[in-house]
Design brief:
Layout (H helix, E strand, L loop, with lengths): L8 H5 L4 H5 L5 E2 L4 H10 L13 H17 L3 H8 L5 E3 L6 E3 L21 E4 L11 E7 L7 H17 L4 E6 L10 E9 L1
Parallel strand pairs: 1-6
Antiparallel strand pairs: 2-3, 4-5, 5-7, 6-7
């Protein structure tokens, strides 16, 4: 259930669920604690450990350049994600000359705000700034336009299984996911996904 898994490494280490949290089968949420991820990585190299958990210096430089570009064209990084990931239409803010996203389900308010759809259609994308993973491991992001799903981690796991199955055309894969404690785009709910073909 929602509270069954421990997102906090210290809490997990003090519970009887530690072995369950670190061992297969996967296809579920895991802790974002780097120490516990490292323990999983040692037995399952496709899972990122402490040395893989960050992008390379080259990828970080590309990310910094991309952020500057987005900030120069969009009112906010969330507007960029709504357009790029969810394909929301954009409009020009006449006051700033920058683009903002318009939620297709909601009318635009007089301030040009983007609303939130009541129904969510999660989108799985390859991570634009991936971590330094072992060969064969993939880094993706599962995005939700309407916020964290009401079904909690069970819903996220089911959505992820469905999206990966649709993308790959088969069910021969395994994955883990977690909420990044320091989301780079906090205005749009998303989770980090690591997966591989079986």
């Amino acid at each position: 259930g929602e509270g069954g898994r421990k997102a906090d490494g210290a809490a997990a280490a003090g519970s009887g669920d530690l072995d369950e949290d670190l061992a297969p089968p996967f296809n579920r949420r895991v802790t974002s604690d780097k120490t516990l991820l490292q323990i999983m990585h040692e037995s399952h190299p496709w899972i990122p450990g402490t040395e893989q958990i960050r992008p390379s210096p080259e990828v970080l430089a590309t990310k910094a350049h991309k952020i500057l570009s987005v900030e120069s064209f969009y009112r906010d990084v969330t507007d960029y994600i709504f357009e790029e990931v969810f394909r929301y239409p954009t409009r020009m803010d006449t006051g700033t000359g920058k683009l903002y996203a318009v939620c297709p389900a909601d009318p635009v308010d007089e301030k040009g705000g983007h609303g939130r759809q009541k129904e969510d259609n999660p989108v799985l994308t390859a991570c634009e700034f991936p971590y330094q993973l072992e060969a064969g491991a993939k880094h993706s992001i599962l995005w939700y336009s309407a916020g964290r799903p009401k079904g909690g981690e069970g819903q996220i796991t089911a959505d992820l299984r469905a999206r990966l199955g649709q993308e790959l055309g088969h069910g021969r894969f395994e994955f883990i996911w977690y909420e990044n404690p320091k989301m780079s785009v906090p205005g749009i709910y998303h989770v980090q996904v690591f997966w591989r073909h079986l």
